[in-house]
Amino acid sequence: MPSQTPPAPSEDSTWVTPPRRGAERVTGAGPAIITAERILTGRRGDAAGTLEVLADPVHGVGVLLDGPRITAVGPLPELQDQAGAALERLERLDLPGATLMPGLIETHAHLATSGTDIEYPEYGVHEVARLTLNAVRAIRELASVGITSVQSLGARHYVDVALRDAIDDGSLRGPRLRASGPQITTTGGHSWHAGAEVDGLDDIRRAVRDHHKRGVDTVKFMATGGFTTAASLPWNAQFTAEEMALIVAETHRLGHLSAAHAHGTQGIERAVDAGIDYLAHASFISASGRTEFDPALADRIAEAGIYVDCTITADVPGMIERNPDFAPPARQLWERGVRIVAGHDTGIPQVAHRSYVAGLQALEEVGLPRAEVILAATSRAAAAIGLAGITGALAPGYEADIIAVASDPTEGLGALHTLRAVIMRGREFVPDPVQGLPRIDDPDPAADPAIVLAAHRDSIRRINEHPNV
Ligand SMILES: [Zn+2]
User: Which Pfam families match (predicted)?
Assistant: First the structure.
């Protein structure tokens, strides 16, 4: 008898333990069905102020997937009909009592920092590698709380671009990323430590083109100073109207979205004049150190369809209570028809990536109706970051970015804290929570609007008390 030839070596045989898929209940490899008690599609309902909810008390509802894509959403009998012969080989995940909804979207993250460390850690010669590793940690943290898409609005060394590509090619698991690379700012301006410093029109052209060359999706610039950079004044614009117009025009010419950090009214107005797509903060802080909402400017923002994140982090409602002078006007903007999205600046000091859901609750607390908060975190957020029709809703043709939560978020956003499944591009992500780093008890005073504004108002008071010197 001829001796048996051993099997030819395969790629797998070079591993001591052949790699297997992990504990995923939905692997993204083929057809799958996920069932639950109700589905929030991430879209508006027919009645004003409501969300589209699918439920079938008799048969239940579900989502049918084919690999990374959603093929059907609705009552189970319909899905079973549609699955037909594939029904036998479906992966099946039943989550009785749960709500299925689109994965959450953070439209304003800083991935290279942790939110609990100092904002610009000194890593010396290891800076690029350490910031990259921080960003890997950040995407794990974000995915573990149910965030399946993220817009990065500022990352040194373009670590967000590299990370986006590594996620897309399967090297790493994480939310779908939209990357901005470093923020464009003025020399010594807001976030200059992390940004690309420019002065004048030629510098601006060069910076926007360089960002394009390095693969960004969004060009972010600092239209005003900010609270976290000492001596950059949030109520003053940093760029002239002509400079902002050039940043936005050059960004659009290259096919990218533009985003501006803007606190003060002057900077907001110039960014709107320039044709900006996305505004971060919009706190309308004035030179007197108070939020002075400008309804006419809000109307222009609404009319232009600009997306706005008011950066309502978990701490903001308490901060407004202590110091009502600084009150980002999320409610007033929304009332005038502005498209508010859930961007929380996660990663900056005191804003951990995992605090995103607490930020959604804060957005409700400052006056945004709950249904609007859910839209702001799903379909509208997707549109704001250039992913309309790709993610942010549960509907046929969309990519399968889905979370399941234990109860009904329309009864209370706290439901979003109890995840039962996170599915990114059709494949389950098994939450891998990172251990929380301790918060800093004695934060950098320059990072606290209340302290910055108190110092500013004190200087105004002194000038007023001594007018004739
Ligand atoms: Zn930011």
Answer: Amidohydro_1
